[in-house]
Amino acid sequence: MEINNYKIIYSAVFILAAILTKLLATVFLRRIQRKFGFQKSRIIIINKIISFILYIIAISFIVFVWGVDEEEFLLFVSSFLTVLGIALFAQWSILSNITAGIIIFISYPVKIGDTITILEKNNNIKGEIRDIGVFFITLQTKKENFITIPNSILLQKSIRYL
Q1: Sign of the alpha-carbon dihedral angle for 45, 47, 50, 51
Q2: Which residue of 12, 19, 62, 109 lies most exposed, with the fewest beta carbons within 10 A?
Q3: Other CB atoms within 10 A of residue 151 CB
Q4: Cross-strand pairs, 109
């Protein structure tokens, strides 16, 4: 099997370009954080998203350089996205938690370090927000216990800020 040198060179160029772009994005995001006072945790999440997208783009270019047929690649991607969509639809609660996590991240109703009380009928949940993830929010109570709450619950319930 003959491997053309240009395929290796192009692959290396795409990988280096992705790494350099990620480094530039990291520096740019740190400047934005300092200038506008964004939380470090939000910058880390944005940096992870940018890195993921850059690496997916680099892998796509490398796949095309190595001669994978465009139709086969698009068939693979569309099949994968279809299976993923069906899986998320079958687990509606997972999809709602991801959507709620995106809403919490974008609309910024609460942030890490806030102390909140989630008002329930019989049992209020009070604690400091320690982490906001894709699926869950982690609260730390006064007794140093950690409680994880699905993101969708945070949007559905009434909250008291302390």
Answers
A1: negative
A2: 12
A3: 23
A4: none
For 124, half-sphere exposure in the C-beta direction (CA atoms, 13 angstrom radius) is: 10
| 145, HSE (Cβ side, Cα atoms, 13 Å) | 7
The end-to-end CA distance of the chain, in Å, is: 67
Measure the CA–CA gap between 74 and 130, rounded to whole angstroms: 40
Whether the CB-CB separation of 137 and 105 falls below 8 Å is answered with no
* pLDDT 10s digits, 69-87: 878 888 888 898 888 777 7
pLDDT recorded at residue 146: 92
- In the structure encoding, which two tokens stand for residue 1, read together? 């099997």
* Residue recorded with tokens 């945790």: 41
CB contact at 8 A, 25 and 35: no
**Where does the chain have alpha helices with state H?**
5-36, 40-65, 70-90, 92-107, 151-156
Give Cα 149 distance to the centre of its chain. 18
What amino acid is encoded at 26 in this protein? T
Q: CB under 8 Å to 26, separation ≥6 — which residues?
A: 47
Tokens of 96: 């709602």
| Inter-CA distances, 137 with 25, 140, 144, Å | 27, 10, 16
